[in-house]
Amino acid sequence: MRYAAVALTAFAAMLSGAAAAPTTTEPNYDSPQPGYKLVPAQWETQAFVDGPFIKLEGTVQEVRAELIKINPNYDADFNITIDANPSPPADLEARTDF
């Protein structure tokens, strides 16, 4: 359970960065570098709090959209709040040690 909490916290942190609408076109996985192949990211996560782990593919936004299709209460169940305009922490200062 501890691993699940850590994994979900990390997943929620990634989701809070941007909430873009998923694209409706198929992504282009042709590699710009000859000899290499681009593959979609794979995620192992839960759609329900006590549910089994499932494997999903795609960007963070695509996976989140799929999780919400599976469980419309996903954000509430996992206590995820996404702030569209987050403000920086009050103790954040500009770096001067480059």
Task: Produce a short descriptive summary.
With 98 residues, the chain is α+β, with helices and mostly antiparallel strands. 32% of the residues lie in helices and 10% in strands. The chain has a domain of 65 residues.
Number of helices: 3
Order of strands in the sheet with the most strands? 1-2
Query: Distance N terminus to C terminus?
Result: 40 Å
In the predicted model, the low-confidence regions spanning at least 5 consecutive residues are none
What profile does the largest beta sheet have?
Answer: 2 strands, antiparallel
List how many beta strands DSSP finds.
2
Global geometry: flat
Strand residue content: 5-15%
Report the C-alpha radius of gyration, rounded: 17 Å
On the 0 to 100 scale, the average pLDDT is 79
By secondary-structure content and strand pairing, the structural class works out as alpha+beta
What is the H/E order? HEEHH
Helical content band:
25-40%
